[in-house]
Amino acid sequence: MKNRLPSPYGTLINREKSIQFEFESKTYNGFQGDTIASALIANNQTLLSRSFKYHRPRGALTMAGQDANTMVQLPSNPNALADRELISEGLKVTGQNYSGSLEKDRGEWLGLFSRFLPVGFYYKAFFKPRGIWEKWAPLIRKKAGLGVIDQQLVPDYYDKQYKFFDVVIVGGGPAGMQAAIESAVENCEVLLVDENPSLGGSLNYSRFDVEGTRGKKQLNELLDAINAKPNISVMTNAVCNGWFADNWLPIVTKRRLYKVRAKQTIMCTGSLEQPAIFHNNDLPGVMMSSAAQRLVHLYAVSPGSQAVIVTGNNDGYGTALDLDDAGIKVNAIVDLRDEPIYDDIAKAAVARGIRVETGTTVYAAHSKGANHVAAAEIRKIVSQGICAVQGEVITCDLLCMSVGYTPTYQLACQAGGQLTYDDQSAMFSLQNCPQSLQLAGSVDSLWSLDAVLLESKRAAMIATNALELTNEKVTDRVTENTLSPNHPWPIFAHPKGKEFIDFDEDLTIADIINATGDGYEHIQLVKRYSTCGMGPSQGRHSALAAARLVAAATNRTVAETGVTTARPPFSAEQLGHSAGRSFYPARRSNMHYRHLEAGAEMLQAGAWYRPAFYHFNNNDRQTCINKEVSNVRDNVGLVDVSTLGGIEVRGADASEFLNRFYTFGFLKQPVGKARYALLTNEAGVVIDDGVACRFGNNHYYVTATTGGVDRVYQNMLKWNAQWRLDVDIANVTSAYCGVNIAGPNARAVLQKVCSDVDLSAKAFPYMGVRLGNVGEIPARLIRVGFVGELGYEIHVPQQYGEALWDALMSAGNEHNIQPFGIEAQRILRLEKGHIIIGQDTDAMSNPNEVQMGWAVSRTKPFFVGGRTIAELEKKPSLRCLVGFVIDDSKVPMPQESHLVVDDKQMTGRVTSCNFSPTLGKAIGLAYVPPQKSDAGSVIEIKSLGGVRVLAKVVNLPFFDPDNARQEL
Amino acid sequence: MKLLTCPLNGSRNIAEFTYGGEYHATPDHISTSARDWAEHVFFHDNAAGMVTEWWCHTASSFWFLAERNTITDEVIRTFKADEIYTERIDFSAAKTESRS
Amino acid sequence: MTTLDPTMGMRRSQLYRRHINNNAVFKKTGSDFVVSHYDNGNNQRTELDQARSMAICDLSTLSRTGFKGAGAPIWAESQGVKLPDRANRAIVQPDGCLVAKLSDQELLILSDILAKSHQVTALGEQSTSDHLENDTQTYLLPRGDSHCWLAVTGNQAAEMFSKVCGVDLRSHKFALGNIAQTSVAKTNAIVIRQDLGQTLSYFILCDISATEFLWDCLLDAMQEYAGSPVGIRALEQLVASQ
Question: By three-state DSSP, how is residue B59 classified?
Answer without folding.
Answer: coil
